[in-house]
Write a structure and sequence with these properties.
six-stranded mixed sheet, elongated, mainly beta, 10 strands
Length: 112
């Protein structure tokens, strides 16, 4: 039986001139069931993430945190393969800034 290795995906985000910038162009990335995703906003702003789908592929649909904190999610083992838009929003002290990246859930590996 083939051992399944779960991955951890670190998405580092910073906001420059009201524009979201992602480490290694991670505004779109691929995951599989059981993987972990960690988001870290480099700016010291409170921020949140909202999955913009009727059924979330993660173990939650939205999370909000304070400045400097990390948001962690686990991809559900039975998450349906597909492209999931999500929103990331931050408050810079003056206005709410928002971006719409994507998570791609790959189909499970075939057995046999």
């Amino acid at each position: 039986m083939k051992e399944v290795i779960m991955e951890e995906h670190l998405v580092t985000v910073r906001i420059e001139d009201k524009e979201f910038k992602y480490s290694k162009n991670q505004e779109c990335f691929c995951v599989k069931g059981g993987d972990t995703i960690k988001w870290k906003l480099r700016n010291r702003f409170p921020y949140g993430i909202v999955i913009k789908a009727l059924v979330s592929p993660l173990d939650w649909s939205y999370k909000i945190t304070g400045a400097g904190a990390e948001i962690t999610a686990k991809v559900l083992k039975n998450a349906a393969p597909g492209i999931y838009a999500y929103g990331i929003g931050a408050f810079d002290g003056t206005e709410l800034l928002f971006d719409d990246p994507e998570i791609i859930v790959r189909p499970p590996d075939r057995k046999g």
